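Follow-up to my earlier ticket, as requested here are the two runs.
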Amino acid sequence: MPSQGTIGDRVRGLRLNRRMSQAQLAGPDLSDSYVSLIESGKRTPTPVVARLLAERLGCTTEFLLHGIEPRQRIDTELGLRHAELELQHGDPSAAADRFTEIVKAADEENAMLTAHARFGRARALEAQGRLGQAVEAFERLRREAAAHPERLADLPLTIALSRCYQRAGDRLRARDLATYALEQAERLAITQGEIAIDLAAALAEARDEHAGDSAGLAYVKRVLDVSGTPEVVDRSGEVHALWRASSEAAAGEDSALAVRLADDAIMVGRQTRLALQLARAAMHWSRLGSVAPDEAERLISTATRAFAASPATAREHGESLIVHARVLLRAGAGARAEELAGQALKLPHDGASTTPAEAHLVLATAVLERAGEAAELLRKAQTLLEGLDRPVFGFDRQTARCWRELGDLYGRAGSRALQSAAYRKALETAGVHSAMAGVTVDTTVSR
């Protein structure tokens, strides 16, 4: 059976295979000119007309409209769900492969499913840290969404692109995209649900710690006020049990049940994912110096509990402990800040995490606040920063901030030479290389 990419191609192919004229296919209900318009792509048949044509052509309505048979379609839908589960609860690399297989199988025979699979693959690339490829994929999808809004929604793509550009270091492009996404969300009054939460997290992450009031921050505040930061319950066991059951149902050719079980697994995991996104927004919000200490402590306390409850967010748990410690330092609670920094040091960390270095910076700050000796803590922080894995893009804003803070603390400790060296390192890590060795860098430059 032909499976060309458009409805018109399929109608014409099936008609010619059955050696029917356009007038014969039209019958008493339609005109042959209308059939001609459908075959040329100038008209799209209504559901009623599609059923009528399918009966006369000896195929299913599903095939005529989408280019695949019902069983093929449900298998593709199931494949999309299992790829999504792999992305959210398994291996992003394996998820990318699954989405790619779906794209190849569906090809242009079902543009909607293909578009969703390509969106999934782009998100899988982002989850792997392959930001350059993810950006390219999201940009292509945005162009497609502009041309075919019936296939893809532009707003989630814009938010994803803003997030990727932010993490890749292109803050201007990230901010432009976030502003555009915010305008869309504000126009539609979207302050709840997955899109609102993802946008709030992206806006909060993109803000500078010293940022003042803005429309973006006001939006983040509204989303946090409406949604709060719910407690996270680890339901990964339930997700994987439903996922396994779905796979077993699929192996037994019970595709409808397999899809239902996969949907249940996705829904269970979705609640945790949204709660963690809210926790991320709350964590980034708490970093801002303009946030009142009591509000910042309330939000970061809830965010820390959320990350602690999820095995998949160990790195963010450590990061949230550091943010909480910094909030306490601003409030003058140095002893509690030191306690949280110590907790962060006990967590496992990968070679790219700044958390151990930041913990030592927090400890050094607390010691200096009480006029103590912090030289050893500062040396340890410097060693940890020097040992960080080099980022893919050659610069890292978070690490640059740590070097800048180290310079500030060396200055407070009276070590001017080490202060200047740390400031130069901050500039280099941020992508600014000075050709003038030995130049003393003013603190305002490195900020």
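Run two:
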Amino acid sequence: MNDLDPTLAESHFAFGRNWSEYARKITEAEIEEAEKGLLRLFERDQINGARFLDIGSGSGLHCLAALRLGASEVAAIDIDNDSVETTRAVLERYAPGKKWLAERVSVLEFSPDRMGLFDVVYSWGVLHHTGNMYRAIKRAASVVNTNGLFAFALYRRIWMDPFWRYEKKWYAHATSDAQARARGVYVALFRLGLLFTGRRYADYVQDYRNNRGMDFYHDVHDWMGGWPYESITADEVEGMMQELGFRSEKVFSRHGRILGRDLGIFSSGCDEYVYRRMDKA
């Protein structure tokens, strides 16, 4: 899929620069929405007192949310040094005195030997960007403690996967001016699509902020540049997780409309999963 070693940051889109810019805009409102996002996946008492690992920490917002919800310790890993530095800055600012650690490491090389096992492992929209999604899922699952929880979001498989693979590889290596023009075209078409469905663009952008505390424009850049890119079906995830010794707790999945797939004109979207480790052999 990629000419470079997927464990090297150089083989990936520079997500960290995007999250560094976003982190400067974090307020209490974004933190509260991130907390709500975690509580959609977990019960409060499942986070309270837990060792929490965030794989692909990005801005560090959800590491912070986990600490605010009572996690006893948070570890963050990311392959992108800008993301690691941003996570550290956010936690130093908003979580003084809390127990946390942020390191630059690829999940493809991660194992229990490095930091031990965790009660909660969280990876939202990350593992499909590693260059080896199936290996990344297995490595992440390997650090979940017995009876622990593994929550992750992965791109659902869509008809337009070939187009988006081409677009993302181009965008990841394009100049900043070319990227800006591409985003302008995308947003214009997206606004037109909302108009045809009777929705207001301004309302959509405002509501977007209320989803995990994220920002629409930063996520457009993140989506368009998300290389490497892989996708998967919910059935494939279920089969794989069963083999790894996990039981499904929650699934937020939108099944496709045509032969099991969405068209994916503007994006694939992520299906979200929460699994429990039943047997740590």
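The only thing I checked on run two: The beta strands are 51-55, 73-78, 100-104, 118-124, 144-155, 246-252, 270-277. Let me know what else you need.
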